[in-house]
Records
---
Amino acid sequence: MIAKIEQLLKEVEAMHASNAEELEALRIKYLSKKGAINNLMADFRNVAAEQKKVVGMKLNELKTIAQDKINALKEQFENQDNGCDGVDLTRSAYPVELGTRHPLSIVKNEIIDIFARLGFSIAEGPEIEDDWHVFSALNFAEDHPARDMQDTFFIESHPDILLRTHTSSVQTRVMEASQPPIRIICPGRVYRNEAISYRAHCFFHQVEALYVDKEVSFTDLKQVLLLFAKEMFGADTKIRLRPSYFPFTEPSAEMDISCNICGGKGCPFCKHTGWVEILGCGMVDPNVLDANGIDSKIYSGYALGMGIERITNLKYQVKDLRMFSENDTRFLKEFEAAY
Ligand SMILES: [Zn+2]
């Protein structure tokens, strides 16, 4: 009896099936009612009483091993059947969500589009810059506060290297590498050493425009500004220029537009003045032209720059600047229809 059990055990352990039919044949041969193991069970009553315990244990062991082996082979076939390790190919697919364009990209592209129609081409430059291209070549005085660590991110071990604080550095790079006529627009990210709050961030985005040629005048600048404001905020938009100061332009001005939220009547957004500030501009300081290899006796130019976040705020009234960099899809999806 023991010898028979051992023989069957060897057979069971060597069981092999290459398809479901072979497996079923094995199950019938060993585990069915008239199978080999049940036949042994039937012989069990003839075993001598003193051997019953040992033989019984062996028989049960054989039956368990045979059952486990059949189950293991069966599982193997089931996984092979769909070829995907248990993945249910009949289940419907997860929906794929389409992304939307970021509001800052939408507005940046709108600004670029307006200037492109006026003949401006896009210029780009590095975000990690040196002092010359960000400050010195733009007529910043040695002791200008923008050069202070409080306002600008410098590389500690190399104080000449910094994160650009404005995209004007692209203007200097274009001027030093080419001669007028220059008509460029420079969109990009800039960095300031600011505490992050709802109205300030350590990085934001600018678009600057530069036009240098013979006989460029303030009139040209004003006309471009008016056209830009009307294209961007609607044909009824009015502009006004206030005198200002920037190191790189002379004269300099800041431009306000009639508040597009209240139509100029006065609201909390425009602090009840009817006007909102949107950009800085001016005639390129002759010192800047000369520092960048352009003869200021022959050429003149204008420059203007604006924050993309500021323009986006005016168009969409986003109250918290931080939302632009949080990548919350609930916020981003609100601009789905905007492009
Ligand atoms: Zn208003």
---
Amino acid sequence: MNINLIYTALRPSQTAVVHANDDGTYTILVNSNKSKQKQIKGVLHELQHINNDDFYTELQADIIERILHNQQLKEDLDHINFYYHVI
Ligand SMILES: [Zn+2]
């Protein structure tokens, strides 16, 4: 799995946002204005969305969020290639 991490300024309410790309990779935008601890938490949260394939579910976003916040990250991070970009 390939994931692009892009550090850039996002809205203050956002820590990280994930996007599923057409080529099967993922892009996670990370808010460069947040603390490192919050950035890591945000990225892990978005990884859960990827792991759960939330992009293709009919479930409403707020329901997904509530389920996610009660789960532990099961994905083995060794299997993910991270590509860092700072904008
Ligand atoms: Zn989320």
---
Amino acid sequence: MKMNELKLVYFSPTGTTRKVIMEAARNIDLKSVSHDFSVYKEKKPVLKFAENDFALFGIPVYAGRVPALFAEYLQNVTGKNTPAALIATYGCREYEDALLELKELVEKNGFKVIGAAAFPTEHSIVQTIGARRPNKADMKVIAEYGINLNRRLRKEENFDNINIQVPGNSPYRKYSKSSLFPKADVSLCTECKACARSCPAGAISIKDPKTTDHKKCIGCLRCVHFCRQNARGVSSMKLRMLEGKLKKVCQNDKTADIFL
Ligand SMILES: Cc1cc2nc3c(=O)[nH]c(=O)nc-3n(C[C@H](O)[C@H](O)[C@H](O)COP(=O)(O)O)c2cc1C
């Protein structure tokens, strides 16, 4: 089949998933178009992909699941038996049901999954876990995944015989929202509004960027990442407690799981 475009559909509040998806995409021989859902959109865009497009979906794992906000965006993304591949990045704990959930979400919307992968990375909340991953060696593995997907796209006439199996349980584990909400230090905040403009959940008001709507906040820490004044952060005591807990269940040297 003559392929058309590579459609990159992803959510990456703190930029790691974006880095991973771009490295895989760099090795796929198609012109790419990005749909980055890390930026708040009041109206969820409607995307319809063709049979000869190739879609690459990327998510960070949240509580062993697909981030709920991204799942909402996916409802409006449809294919026509469009081939697709999946990427889940996770902070060296576990990815649990996330890859299975992502697979089932896209399949329900007309995509045919021809590859899936889970890549261990730096933990976006406790950055001492998996620190600076993906590293050089990880990037090689990610590139290899892209090369294998490209090979598959070139080789197969159709993808009917491909049956990708990924681990996970159904029903999925309960989605638990993070309770680690970032706050603004009012003495440092210059009201530049970078946090409000970057928040994926629309939880920070442009008029009053010093406050956060905790009902909307998803605890992704994108505002902390984008704040140049270091005014946004989470309670250091809560962070230390979480670090203690996570250090017992995370492994800094986890390796990628690739399903082809
Ligand atoms: C709210 C939240 C929940 C998370 N849950 C998990 C998890 O269940 N397992 C895990 O290993 N990492 C977890 N992480 C870490 C991220 O999945 C990981 O750091 C990811 O690469 C971040 O991607 P991003 O930089 O594209 O946002 C979580 C991070 C956040 C902010």
---
Amino acid sequence: MVDALATGGARAVARCDALGVIPYSDMPHGLYRGYLTPAYRAAQDALSGWMAAAGMAVSRDPAANLVGRYEGSDPAAPVLMIGSHLDSVRDGGCYDGPLGVMLGIETVAALHRTGRRMPFAIEVIAFGDEEGSRFPAAMLTSRAVAGTLSPEALDLVDGDGVALADAGVDVARFCTAARAPGSVMAYLEAHIEQGPVLEDQGLAVGVVTGIAAQLRYRVQVDGMAGHAGTTSMPLRRDALAGAAEMIVAIEAIALADRSDVVATVGRIAAGPGAANVIAGQVDFTIDVRSGDVARRDRAADAILDAIEAIAQRRGLGVGIERIHDLPASPCGPHLQDLLDAAVADAGQPVHRLVSGAGHDAMVMAALCPTAMLFIRCRGGISHNPAEHVEPADAEVALQVMVGFVEKLGDACARS
Ligand SMILES: [Zn+2]
């Protein structure tokens, strides 16, 4: 019934919906699809049929990624990979990941319908473990394909005590999913934006310039615990009041930058944690991101300076530990231009934006130039059952992807 729909974009959305329930979900109400679970296998089986119907030869690679290959006129030419991930977070939405895979299939289906071949083969890949919602690691399977995964990283156990080695993959062969350098010409990923920018601007799609550089810190503020009734205000060293001032300063610094810099305090714990005791110790996290690593670092330096100054003025001790430093992953400039041109050809305004979230494309950048197309999602909501994509927007995205592939084909024919 899904396949009776007239247009590829609508069919891609409907297929994501179809995979949002049992047996394609591991939970009875809502969607959770973990890597290598029964729902993952069932979703791969469904995908496999759709890939075959679109003219692709289907296989599973050693990392249990599903790959559909549509042969090109030159079988020896480096391939274009189009993909995204098939797994989901717990109680997630239907489109984060699968929509990019379905649109990849529809892109090939559009070529197959008219018997067209590109100078290069196209491989649609459904990655298995982007979210890291089952095993305590993320993007394992794209790291395997990109050749950046070490075998030691596969010593993993899920929340139920099942080892990855017993979950249905051969860990000894896992890393042989690596593609040879030079064998992949480019990687294209379409993904829901997971943010409100496109909706705010009234745009169906946006061209991603790159994935933001991330920094994460753990901050510990030390004051003096004391009786809430007997310690007069001037004599206090209140760690929680100090942390509150720091958090407001962090927000103000990111706001004042008037750029793509974002800074977040997402977790805080205060001790000893009683209504009648002044907080003696507070721990909180800071997450700072920007598409430009220098801009990110400038904002982070200003934040750390502000924290030190506030601590000093209040007589508080402060310890700051950097726990995470992820470089930016810029998309291929030439591929961004091709996507821009395809967006314009589809009659849409061209808009570029940075991705604040990580994606498989970030990993694939180690192997080949990458391109990403963001698709508007309602309210910017994701990782939530309320995630929603308009079929008309998916249609625009599909047009852009087909246009992108054609332009890449023209560029190859010319060179
Ligand atoms: Zn995703």
